[in-house]
Amino acid sequence: MKLRHILFTMALAITCSSKVFAADDVLRVATDATFPPFEYVENGKRTGFDVEMIEALGKVMGKKIEWTDIDFKGLIPAVLSKRADVAASAIYITDERLKVVNFTHPYYTGGLAILVKTDNTAIKEPADLNGKKVSVQVGTKSVQFLKDSYPKVERVEVEKNDQMFELVKIGRADAAVTGKPAALLYAKANPVVKVLDKTLTVERYGFAVRKGDTELTNEMNKALEKLRADGTYAALVAKYFGTSK
C-alpha cells in the first residue's frame, strides 16, 4: 500500500508539473472578432491586424496562442477573472481602464469617427450629432464619450459592431460613432455610407493584461519592439491599413 501511495504521488506530481509547463507555454487571448480590420472572421478563420500581431508576438515569446471569443464588454472582465491572460480587440488605453488593468505599449493610434449615410446633409460636423440617434457598441469608449461630450444625443446601444453599422445603413440610426479605421473599411465596402473627415478624438490601442502580470506585460513589450525592428509590424500595418506608417 505504501509503494502504491508513493507511485500515485509521483504520477500526480508529474501530471501537475506538465500542466504548469503547458500553461507557461500558452498565452490565452480573448477577443471580439467582429471589428475589421482589427479582428474578424473570414472563410471560417479568425484574422485581422490584432490577430496577426498577437500570433507574431507569440512566436517571438515562444508561446502558443489560445483564442477565446467574447463580447467586447466582457473582455476586460475575462482578464480580471483569469479566464484569459490578454485581451486583444482594438481596445483604447483609457484612464478608466488603467485603474483595473495594465496595457502594453501602444501598438497603433486611431480615434473616434462619425459614420453617416452618404446622402445625409443634416450631420456635417460633430456638433450636428446633438438631438440625433447615434449607434454605439456596448462597452466601448464611444458610449461614455457621447454621454460626456454630446449629452443630447439619443444613443442606440448594440452588442456587436456590425449591428451598429447596419442601423445607419438601413436608416434606424442617423450616425454611428466608432474607431476610424473600422469605419473607413466599412464605408469602402458600403458606398451608401461615408466617414466625416473630422475625427472626434485621438486614441491609442493597447493589449490589456492583469495588473499583477508585470512580467507578461514586459515580455510582450519586448516582443513588440522586436517586431517593429525586424519589419514585421510595418508589414502588418501596410497589409491592413494601406500604409506602413
Helix and strand layout, with pairings?
Elements: H1 2-24, E1 26-31, E2 40-42, E3 45-47, H2 49-61, E4 64-69, H3 75-80, E5 86-87, H4 95-98, E6 101-103, E7 108-110, E8 112-117, E9 133-137, H5 141-149, E10 154-158, H6 161-169, E11 175-179, H7 180-189, E12 193-195, E13 203-205, E14 208-210, H8 214-229, H9 232-241
Helix pairs in contact: 2-8, 2-9
Short synopsis of the structure:
The protein contains 9 helices and 14 strands.
Features:
five-stranded mixed beta sheet; SBP_3_CS; alpha/beta; globular; D-Maltodextrin-Binding Protein, domain 2; Iontro_rcpt_C; ABC transporter permease; ligand-gated monoatomic ion channel activity
Structure, explained:
- With 245 residues, this protein is α/β, with parallel strands linked by helices.
- The protein has 2 domains: 26-109 and 204-241, D-Maltodextrin-Binding Protein, domain 2, CATH 3.40.190; 112-201, D-Maltodextrin-Binding Protein, domain 2 (3-Layer(aba) Sandwich), CATH 3.40.190.10.
- It has 9 helices and 14 strands.
- It has helices at 2-24, 49-61, 75-80, 95-98, 141-149, 161-169, 180-189, 214-229, 232-241; strands spanning 26-31, 40-42, 45-47, 64-69, 86-87, 101-103, 108-110, 112-117, 133-137, 154-158, 175-179, 193-195, 203-205, 208-210.
- It has a 5-stranded mixed β-sheet.
- A hairpin with a 2-residue loop joins strand 2 and strand 3 (45-47).
- Helix 2 (49-61) runs antiparallel to helix 9.
- The protein is globular.
- The relative contact order is 0.17.
